[in-house]
Amino acid sequence: DVGSRLVSTSAPERTLVLVKPDGVARGLVGEVLSRLEAKGLRLVAAELRTLTRETAETHYAEHSERPFFADLVEFITGGPLMALVVEGPRTIEAFRALAGATDPVKAAPGTIRGDFALEVQNNIVHGSDSPESAAREVKLFFPDLG
Ligand code: UDP
After folding, report:
1. ipTM, 2 decimals?
2. Residue 18 forms part of a structural domain
3. Among 6, 73, 131, 133, which one has the highest count of C-beta atoms within 10 angstroms of its own C-beta?
C-alpha cells in the first residue's frame, strides 16, 4: 500500500543487536531501544539473558585467536545482556551507523558508543556486521524464530 511504500522501498532485513552487560548494568536498554525505534527499525524478538561461555565463544568465534578474546568472553558472560532481533530496510548498516565505531573514543558523538562509552571492550552494543553474520547470530540466539 501507499503508506508502507512511503516508509520504505527496500526489502526488510534482520540483524542481531545486543545491549551488552555494561549497557544493561548502566540502565541504557531503554536508550538503545528508543534510538533504534525512533530510526524506524522494528523489534521482532527481545530477551534478557546471561550467556553461557559456550554461546559467547561461538558468537565471537572469529576473534578466538585475538589477544582480547578471553577478556571479551569474561565480559560478555559477566551479567545479563539484552538480545534483540531487529528488522527493517538495510537494518544491518542502519544499526551499525547508530552504534558508531568499535572504539568509543573514535565513535562520532551522536552515536550510541560515541555518547555513552570510553573503552573498546565495554562499548554498550553489538550489531551483526554482514548478512551472513546476521543469519548465523540470529539463529544462535533465537533458534526458534521463524
Ligand atoms: N573488542 C575488544 N578489544 C579490541 C577490539 C574489540 O575488547 O581490541 C571487543 C569489543 O567489545 C567489540 C568486540 O570485541 O565490540 C567485537 O569486535 P569487532 O571488531 O567485531 O567490533 P564490532 O563489530 O563490535 O564493532
Report:
1. 0.98
2. yes
3. 73
The pLDDT value recorded for residue 146 is 76
Residue nearest to atom 7 of ligand 1 (CA): 121
3-state secondary structure the chain: CHHHHHHCCCCEEEEEEEECHHHHHCCCHHHHHHHHHHHCCEEEEEEEECCCHHHHHHHCHHHCCCCCHHHHHHHHCCCCEEEEEEEEECHHHHHHHHHCCCCCCCCCECEHHHHHCCCCCCCCEEECCCHHHHHHHHHHHCCCCC
Q: How many domains does the chain have?
A: 1
Residue 4 resides in a domain: no
Mutation to probe ligand 1, out of 93, 116, 119, 120 (largest number of atoms < 8 A from CB):
120
- Domain with 108, as residue range(s), is 11-141
3 — pLDDT class (breaks 50, 70, 90): low
Q: Is residue 146 part of a domain?
A: no
The whole-number pLDDT of residue 46 equals 98
Instruction: Give the per-residue pLDDT at 10.
Output: 72
